[in-house]
Amino acid sequence: MVGKEIEVKNWQDTKGTVFIKGELWKATSDHQLLPGDKAIIEKVDGLLLRVTRCNED
Q: What's the pTM?
């Protein structure tokens, strides 16, 4: 799953939920994200994803 693009569903401060493969996952990030933002999975730690903001250039 690392490197996959996902969609942010809910976010508060540095944690929230994201949608991937038909499922909602808990996620954390150093970045403030908003619902609807795209992010990239950096790391999988059990059932927690570490994500970063997707650059949409």
A: 0.88
